[in-house]
Write a structure and sequence with these properties.
71% of the residues lie in helices and 8% in strands. With 353 residues, it is of the alpha+beta class. The chain is rod-shaped, with a radius of gyration of 79 Å. The N and C termini lie far apart (179 Å).
């Protein structure tokens, strides 16, 4: 079907129906439209020109910005690298710091120990100073004591000198007593030997007594004095009477003991009786014969029988038993005399005592 254009005929129809001035208005409208289109195209061109210039400027700015961005990116990479290095350095620094802090702590501990040691040392020094002061005081006291001791030593030396002199005097007195005792014993022994003519039956024992064999006075088992013993006993009377007549001798003598001894033959009771009887027989003869010369000194004499209790040798042999059968004459010194001599020594005043 052929398409028909009705616009213009319709317009024409309407125009014919009374619408006037259509074409001039249309031309004006078209001119206005054309002018508007031109104006729009001009605006578009101007806008394009402006936009082009802006785009160029923007591209230039963008290029510049890209360059700056690239520079910034390089700087950022450099900064990142620097930051990484800085982080590594910071880590290393932190490790060194931790190590340093550890060392500082150790140093602080050591310092604390040193401080404590120093405090202890000060305390020790103070104590040592106090001890030194105390020692100095003690030394001063010791010096004073030493001075006193020197003075005391001087006094003791004087005492020692006096004591030595006293000891020498006491020794001289003791020696005098010992010599006196030995002298009378030797006189008795020598007198008996001269009368008997036999030195084998008389001796001085280790205890300081005259020892006379049984055979000098008695037969075996008898307490009767043999006639041949009388000269010996008479000699004893002379010796003792002469000795006791001296006051110097008498002041030292306490007693003169005549003791009898036997061997172990027989019973103990028989031996004890036999030894006592023999001692009494000798003592009785000394005090009764020669007109009772010794009777005035009877208080000095005594008799004792010991039987077999004090043997000087073994009773297992004949020789030993013969030695045990004996008469002993002992001179007992006064204890008071000896004690007086010793006491005179002890009475010396000791300096400082």
């Amino acid at each position: 079907m052929k398409r028909q254009y009705r616009g213009r005929s319709d317009a024409m129809v309407r125009s014919q129906e009374g619408e006037q001035g259509f074409w001039p208005s249309y031309a004006d409208m078209m001119s206005a439209v054309a002018l508007i289109l031109f104006f729009l195209m001009l605006l578009s061109y101007i806008q394009n020109m402006i936009t082009g210039n802006d785009l160029k400027n923007t591209q230039a700015v963008l290029d510049t910005t890209m360059q700056e961005l690239l520079g910034t990116r390089e700087e950022l990479e450099s900064t990142r690298t620097t930051l990484s290095d800085t982080r590594l350095e910071l880590t290393d620094t932190q490790e060194r710091l931790v190590l340093t802090l550890s060392k500082v702590e150790e140093a602080e501990e050591e310092l604390n120990k040193i401080t404590i040691d120093l405090s202890d040392a000060r305390l020790t020094l103070t104590q040592q100073q106090e001890t030194l002061e105390q020692q100095q005081k003690e030394l001063a006291a010791q010096d004073a004591l030493l001075s006193d001791q020197k003075a005391l030593i001087g006094q003791q030396e004087d005492y020692l000198k006096a004591a030595t002199e006293e000891l020498l005097a006491m020794r001289s007195q003791m020696q005098t007593i010992a010599v006196l005792r030995l002298s009378i014993l030797e006189q008795i022994r020598d007198s008996v030997v001269r009368v008997m003519g036999d030195a084998s039956k008389v001796s001085i024992g280790e205890n300081g007594s005259i020892v006379l064999s049984e055979g000098v006075f008695f037969d075996v088992g008898s307490s009767n004095i043999k006639p041949e013993a009388q000269p010996t006993l008479n000699q004893l009377i002379d010796v003792f009477s002469a000795f006791l007549a001296e006051e110097e001798n008498v002041k030292y003598v306490d007693s003169i003991v005549i003791s009898g001894h036997t061997d172990s033959t027989g019973s103990e009771e028989d031996n004890r009786v036999l030894s006592t009887d023999r001692a009494n027989a000798v003592l009785g003869y000394l005090l009764e014969q020669q007109g009772g010369k010794l009777n005035r000194y009877a208080s000095y004499f005594c008799a004792a029988g010991y039987g077999e209790t004090r043997p000087v040798q073994s009773n297992d042999t004949d020789a030993g038993r013969a030695a045990n059968r004996r008469i002993e004459i002992s001179i007992i010194l006064k204890d008071d005399t000896v004690l007086d001599i010793v006491q005179s020594y002890l009475d010396l005043e000791v300096p400082g005592a």
